[in-house]
Amino acid sequence: MSALAFTHLPHPNKVADEVRAAAIADPVFGRVFTDHMVSIRYAEDKGWHDAQVMPRGPLTLDPATAVLHYAQEIFEGLKAYRLDDGSMALFRVDANAARFNASARRMAMAELPEELFIAAVKEAVAADAAWFPPVDGGALYLRPFMYASEVFLGVKPASEYHFLVIVSPSGNYFKSGAPAISLWVSEHYTRAAPGGTGAAKCGGNYASSLIAQQEAIAKGHDQVVFLDAAENRWIEELGGMNMFFVFDDGSIVTPPLTGTILPGITRDAIITLAKDAGLTVREEPYAIDQWQADAESGRLTESFACGTAAVVTPVGKVTRGDIAFAIGAGGPGQVTGMLKDRLVDIQRGRAADPHGWVTRL
Ligand SMILES: *Cc1c(COP(=O)(O)O)cnc(C)c1O
Q: The whole model's pTM is what?
């Protein structure tokens, strides 16, 4: 299965050099795409087949394609980084491959052999290396995803799937580097419930979180914080980033993976790097009231969110209904900065890679 060979289709009309250069000079996240995509098909009777690196283009879907009705769809997000020596590398791609299959299992979809996921990602980077953006914090953002492609309206797991990888040149997620963001606590909408799909990276989780994100923006904030669905009390995560809390005694806390939180690979790396730096890390529930009390007493000194797209983002302010509280001095804190630097230095090949996270391409 891992020996599935990729067919490389010729590209009849690649984007012209000067058009590409302009597009990658200052790319807005998720708006610029490259020349190619990787495509692999699955059918119950054939298994995985038809692996192709092909010109990027629209998909033609029958209106009865299962994903359009029952939302069997999962995705991943990872970056190819440029190392200081000019070569490119992936960060923990094996963890993305494993998480993709965990998501597939939860959504009753076909699993993709991890070697095939990794091979597809490498093919995508190789095909579009010319699109690497020459900007500070630049990367090729890779979006592997899979949808139920069977044409059938019955309510059951599909028997056909389509896996693709598309590539988007990206600069810094936040234009001004990493400003401290303002968070809005969602008290009406929850993201995930016990037994639900919160730990799966599926489009449906985002579909249900958008209204809360829209509310946050309308109220003048950057991102929404979700609380647990059962008690509306425990901090879970943002719409697409995990949360960390830093205390004045050298400890940090992050909510535990109980099935309602997306197991972020950045989250996992931060936990490891924090321990390496001698911090005490506790994966334990943290209540919204406690966050406010600790921020006000000064026991909590920093908070940050993390994920592949925005890396590590300090939180400056939190608003819940008509109550607002500031975090630390309202700007990027020392521990946040230290952990971010350690992470980015490994991703960019500037620091040793003691945990074997970097795959050089
Ligand atoms: C992808 C994602 C994250 C971050 O995961 P990383 O692997 O660190 O990029 C956090 N929360 C949600 C809901 C996500 O979808």
A: 0.96
